[in-house]
Write a structure and sequence with these properties.
Strand order of the largest sheet: 1-2
Order of helices and strands: EEH
Radius of gyration: 23 Å
Helix content: 25-40%
Strand content: under 5%
Number of helices: 1
Shape: flat
Structural class: mainly alpha
Length: about 90
């Protein structure tokens, strides 16, 4: 059974506004659900086979931001290294 609660994003004055941009997207994965005593709960049949790996989770907003900062720093370092190599070749 699927429940749906349709709604509208509202601004400070109550006017309808566009939905905010998503920070991250998650992918559903199959797995066991256990109660507080560690007993597995039956939650229903999976509709699709889990084809994701553990690395496919988008992560928290802070993790995503840190990853983007790291990627930017790596690109900057590669660019500087390439530039230094070109300067050395020209001498």
């Amino acid at each position: 059974m699927l429940y749906l609660a349709p709604s509208t994003w509202r601004g400070a004055n109550g006017e309808a506004i566009a939905a905010p941009k998503a920070i991250a997207y998650g992918k559903p994965t199959a797995g066991s659900i256990v109660d507080s005593e560690g007993v597995s709960e039956h939650t229903g049949k999976s509709i699709k086979e889990d084809k994701t790996d553990d690395e496919s989770d988008a992560g928290t907003p802070a993790e995503i931001k840190a990853e983007k900062i790291e990627e930017k720093a790596e690109k900057k370092a590669e660019k500087a290294q390439k530039k230094a190599g070109q300067a050395g070749a020209g001498q």
